[in-house]
Amino acid sequence: MEARRPRYRQEEAAPPEAASPGRAPLGNLTHFMSQSAPELAPALAPRRMPRRYFALGLIVVAIVLLGTLVIVRDISGPSTTSTVEQFSPASSSLLSTMEQVPASVFDTVGIDSPDIPVTAPHAVGTGGAPLWASTQGGTRAKPVVFFYGAEFAPYAAVERWPLVLALSRFGTFHQLGLTQSSGTSAFANLSTFTFWQSSYSSKYVDLQTIERYGSLNPTGARYLGLQHPDARQAAAVAGYGAGRTTFGFLDIANRWALTGAGFSPTALAGLTQDQIAGYLATPAVPLTQAVVAAANEITASICSVTGDRPGAVCDSRGVLAADTLLRIAPPH
């Protein structure tokens, strides 16, 4: 069995406030004029304007000019920088592609990703810690799968791919958003999903997600905030994550956790969502091997808290290979 590779993670926070740019000094607004004429008669010497009135006049002129510039800028057209996060839904065909990755691909890949090292979730919550489960609408308690991310963060962008693939084996995404990681950070513009405004249903797990920040940074000083964790979610981030400004973080029912991403963000560079999803039906592609191997490991972690349900998923060859890797002994 291949030795485990180093975990990929990176702390990412909104950049500090930038200093406001200074205004350029006003140019000299006056010039001297002279005109010669014949002297016809003696005249009284003109009274000289006090200097304070002259300075006050310059200030008034400067204010008028500055106001004119602002008005011209405002009416010249809309700003090219959006300050409102927009939801871009994934197409039904893309969701179908993620849901319909053949079982044979999961079994063929198993946990093997020789070209792109993969890091699995690690066991947490030992020593009698309670299972994290929730009850909604009077239904029986279901184990919680919790993801804490930010749209601008490249490591969160990576981890959503195997997570969405794994969750599609336990339920259905009715709505899922599209986004890209920040274009100004390392591993820029990675195509991914967003859980902000997503919709998911499952008989087996309760999916809880927080996208703390969006992908927009309109001022250059701070990414737009989207969602805040509740007390239980914040406790998970504080207890098992690397901090509230580290993205992404995955907690599976207080039993398994992963901070950062399962593999390097370089694997997604330059690809669209449709291209990435299109590769997932071909097990020989290195990207497919990384995404599917990581998904099998997440799936095995979830199966360990659902009582091995659904059986067709939890007893599949690829998931059983992940069981061996994670030292999950049946019955779960």
Walk me through what this model shows:
The protein is α+β, with helices and mostly antiparallel strands. The protein contains 9 helices and 8 strands. α4 (154-167) crosses α7.
Secondary structure layout:
Blueprint: H1 51-75, H2 92-99, H3 103-109, E1 122-123, E2 133-134, E3 142-149, H4 154-167, E4 171-180, E5 191-202, E6 206-211, H5 231-240, E7 249-252, E8 256-259, H6 273-279, H7 286-306, H8 311-314, H9 317-326
Parallel strand pairs: 3-6
Antiparallel strand pairs: 1-8, 2-3, 3-7, 4-5, 7-8
Which key terms come to mind for this protein?
six-stranded mixed β-sheet, disordered N terminus, two-stranded antiparallel sheet, alpha+beta, 332 residues
**What's the total count of β strands?**
8
Count of folded domains: 1
The portion of residues assigned to helices is 25-40%
Specify the overall morphology: globular
Give the termini distance in whole angstroms: 22 Å
Average the pLDDT over all residues and give the rounded result: 82
Strand content: 5-15%
Poorly predicted residue ranges: 1-46, 66-81
What is the oligomer described by this structure?
single chain
Number of helices: 9
- The SSE order reads HHHEEEHEEEHEEHHHH
* Helix-and-strand structural type: alpha+beta
**What's the alpha carbon Rg, rounded to whole Å?**
30 Å
The major β-sheet equals: 6 strands, mixed
Give a quick rundown of the structure.
This protein is an alpha+beta fold.
